[in-house]
User: Fold this.
Amino acid sequence: MNNTIFMADQYYLNKSTFLVAADCIVFGFKEKELHILLTRRPVEPLAGEWSLMGGFVSENESLEDAAKKVLFEYTQQKGIYMEQVNAYGAVDRDIGGRVISVAFYALVRLEEFDTSLAQKFDARWINIKELPQLVFDHNKMVEDALTLLRFKVSMQPIIFNFFDEKFTLPALQDLYEAIYQRPIDKRNFRKKIASMNILDKLDIKDTLSSKRGAFYYVFNEEKYRDFLASGKFFSL
Amino acid sequence: MNNTIFMADQYYLNKSTFLVAADCIVFGFKEKELHILLTRRPVEPLAGEWSLMGGFVSENESLEDAAKKVLFEYTQQKGIYMEQVNAYGAVDRDIGGRVISVAFYALVRLEEFDTSLAQKFDARWINIKELPQLVFDHNKMVEDALTLLRFKVSMQPIIFNFFDEKFTLPALQDLYEAIYQRPIDKRNFRKKIASMNILDKLDIKDTLSSKRGAFYYVFNEEKYRDFLASGKFFSL
DNA sequence: ACAAAAGTGTTCACACTACACCCATGG
DNA sequence: CCATGGGTGTAGTGTGAACACTTTTGT
Assistant:
């Protein structure tokens, strides 16, 4: 073997370095539709155009930390569920300079969203069925995030991150329908939910969205572990 | 709205920049087992330890271009099937410096692999069941790549990228078993393949791996399009 | 009393699983 | 002639899809 051992200096120095950004696709659920949080880009080029929330990664920050920082800045919430989508690195994807961007999607509880923040950052919750054109490759990021969300939501019980602890079955079904963009049969849906036995039914009802009222449920972490331990897998 | 428009200079300048690498998880199939291509790291720190193939992204290169460059360097093949796994950006993931790495997995045809390259780069095909400890977070990358590969291979007909055009059904089954790491029933497997009607059976046999010989098949792109057009989905 | 949404079971079709024997050939 | 791997069908089970009426309550 004629392998040469290089000095680290030769290897790490004199290489190109890049700006790295974290862009967030922030999903929320309201009015029976899936929405994402968009803002007007505050900087040239393309100032004023619709854009995802983003920020540059700094020296002593992981990619996830950078994304969390962006999420906290725009929502003031901590512990938001977040997952990496992909890295985007086309040479001219950002016309303002060479920037490699890592996209994350996040699920936020819209009940506890501070609407004053929307004002502050000129941000709005936009129905995913009415997405405008976004800057750079942000539309592609949203598309990829949606694809991933649809997959994940069908395989893992992450959907409960959209709700503030308790939720009704009709609301849960509406949410799945909003994510998959297709109707789901009510009886089959409830049958499947019931068969997993991972929810606790509460004694109280949500009487706001109907006269009769729908019972609240909560996700039971422990029951879910038992469910997994029995060799079954979440699937919806 | 009290949104300030920044000048691009303020926005893009004076931000941290990073070395960005593309690391490749190169999968190949031989001896009825899935293998990945590993090399001895040629540079300090950790020179001589097992490592994935990687390279730094340069100025006028996309992430995909950088990964392709790495793949071509180590395999001398072009048009290799490749897909992004994830970006890895923990602050101290590379102990030689701050490097953000984007992992790609690739599927190569081992029949046409030039073994002299293995010598040149001190590279070896290692059975995935016998993976050594790799440098940095490369083991995690391989794990993530395998998870993604298992999913993709079950949903899209990418598995044929492991073969040099033609292949036998026993070999195809062996490959699925190697990827999923579990036995598959021969009759059920063949029934499902047949029901999709996306392969063409050739008149010739592979007589090397058995006395009787197994018929060769080729993937038929057109039949696959018809299959999709009929509203069905690939699943294996 | 009526409108509006919540809640509840059964049937049917299809897909997945399990399973055992004969065939072709080289040595 | 025998050892080795290639090739073939059927029956049973479970899962997903279709489908309609009763209940509750606010107005």
Notes: The beta strands of chain B are 17-30, 33-40, 50-51, 53-56, 81-88, 99-107, 123-127, 166-168, 199-206, 214-219.
